[in-house]
Predict the 3D structure of the following.
Amino acid sequence: MRRNAALFLIPLALSAQAIQYSESSRVWLLTTRQSSYAVGIAADGAVRHLYWGAPLWRMDDLPPAAARRDLSSFDPRQMLENEEFPGWGGPRYYEPALKVTRENGDRDLVLKYASHRIQGNDLDIALKDIRDDIQVTLHYTVYPEHGILRRNATIRNGTAHPLTIESAQSAAWYLPPGDGYQLTYLTGRWAAETQLNREPIHEGMKVLESRKGHTSHNFNPWFAIDRGDAGEENGRVWFGALAWSGNWRITVERTAYRQVRVTGGFNTFDFAYPLKPGETLDTPLFYAGFSESGFGGASRTLHRFEREEVLPGGKESRLRPVLYNSWEATTFNVNEAGQKELAEKAARLGVELFVMDDGWFGKRNNDRAGLGDWFVNPQKFPQGLKGLIDHVNGLKMDFGLWVEPEMVNADSDLYRQHPDWVIRFPDRPRSELRNQMVLNLARADVKEYIFGVLDKLAGEYHIRYFKWDMNRAVSEPGWPELAATEQRKLWVDYVRNLYEIVDRLRARHPQLEIESCSGGGGRVDLGILQRVDEVWPSDNTEAFDRLRIQEGFTQAYAPKIMSAWVTDVPNMNGRSTPLVFRFLTAMQGALGIGANLNRWTQQDSDVATRMIALYKRIRATVQTGDLYRLSSPRTNDVTVNQYVSPDGKQSVLFAFRHSQEYNTAAPVIYLRGLDERALYRVEAVDGKLLDRQPQLSGAYLMRAGINVNLRGDFDSTAVILDRL
Ligand code: GLA
């Protein structure tokens, strides 16, 4: 990765600027150390996509956007041209980036270049309809060091009449014309998130989306496309990730003219956003990049970008602490004595953040009551939370608290006071899922209430961390207080207000950290990641299932934000794996423990103490290093992942054997990302390394590889390499 990056320093140095514009050819060239992206103005004023791929440096190499001819009356030139941000108008029959309806019913929209502005690494290209003052500003931000390009659009109604927007996308991306493309994407469901899929891109359209009001478990807003020849560490990969935690949509379209177009932004399903004269609508941010070193290269690019440019605090943000969460130990039966006892046990293991989960508030003794009543339950905590928090702090741990602020149970004081606060169609039955309803966060009063509740908790108590949950999706999405034509703003305003609440909370409580959870991985995307410190990838903590969930998760998201717990067995699937296997699985992200410590034996606690101490030695490498997925649980009975610290001084390898067959030895593991001339001190956890030399060269480790003695079912080991 680092070596590859050096190759690209040449073009960047030659071009000096990340954004160039040629007056003569009317072409923009946007360049990072891994990619270039070019757009041009055609003679008819349309703005067209020209290039996306490996870095270029010479403006003069790029031809201007050429005019095309109609192929036939059925195949007009508009269908052949790769318009950078196509409006729905004229003879355009493909997926538009913008579709509007005017008050008088006119729906034609043809966008032409109006002006542009370059400021540092930002480019704005303004487009305008050929007749009406409907303006679109395309925003581009180039991250030259990170290899990422960010796009979105602002739509402005400059006319004197209201408009309704029926489709507002963030960007259309074009692959070089060609055949054989493959789409890689993530799907899932509750407890089975981020499953990796790869399939040919055929003619027609593939839709990845959420209609559920949150990001959803079913699809994650990330894609990768290759020419059918890319692997984990080789081949060209174009990838992108959409930053929106509500209804989103990404379409991958292959036309009859060999175009491959990826369009993404607000989901068009049930979308109707009214725009009064003078009003604007900003579409979600859409990030994209290009890698010449396969899916591994693509994900390392995204990981680094997320750590340094997306997460709150960026480079300065602290490493994730080792966490303990009480949920699986106590469920709703929390009280001061019980939590204190768990906290003492957790502290002895080396835990740094103690999180009390559900059950501490209102009449919350099961999932049928209490949501919405965010005051401390007086039976469970007669003196409030201060006693417990002081105790936890006294044990040198931070304190964290579970909340689910967007929800309400019918059996709650909040619902009795404000039945109109929930999302609903008034004359229709409303679905309760997990006995709860969704508050209409799009309403200003609801937003202020939720902000007020959390602000009060964070102000009153020494709370370092909220686990922010959302345990159901939106249904029957009515907002009866508004006119029918305004109601569908809910989809957008809900998410905006959610973001605003979190942003304001963080501004008022700079020490506060937040984990995004939505029944597991239902709200993981680059929009929420701009404002939370970690996410909960899945309620499924069964270690073998987790290996696959984590493999998919890390395609798009950094290990640092991947909360991973060690829990008790037998777990999901009725499966039992050894405690070390569970620890090593969870140590590949932000380590947490969710087991019932009251049931642990002394031997379990000894293993945990040893593993947590080990984790602290390697955590910086896991959380901020480069990840190489050396062997996949989908294709092999051995899963291997390797992390290399940013300075190259430490590398850690995790290896898991799921099920040995025919007494076959584990395969040789070839390491990556090391310095071939350097010597590494080799330290194996549990003596399962067959190569007994205490030191090995980078060349040997990468070319001859290492052998591990993993046998039977669910065997595992870790190897730490320290550069000498
Ligand atoms: C969700 C979360 C769990 C736990 C429960 C509490 O299911 O994913 O981790 O917090 O809610 O009710």
Summary: The domain at 2-310 is CATH 2.70.98.60 (Beta-galactosidase; Chain A, domain 5).
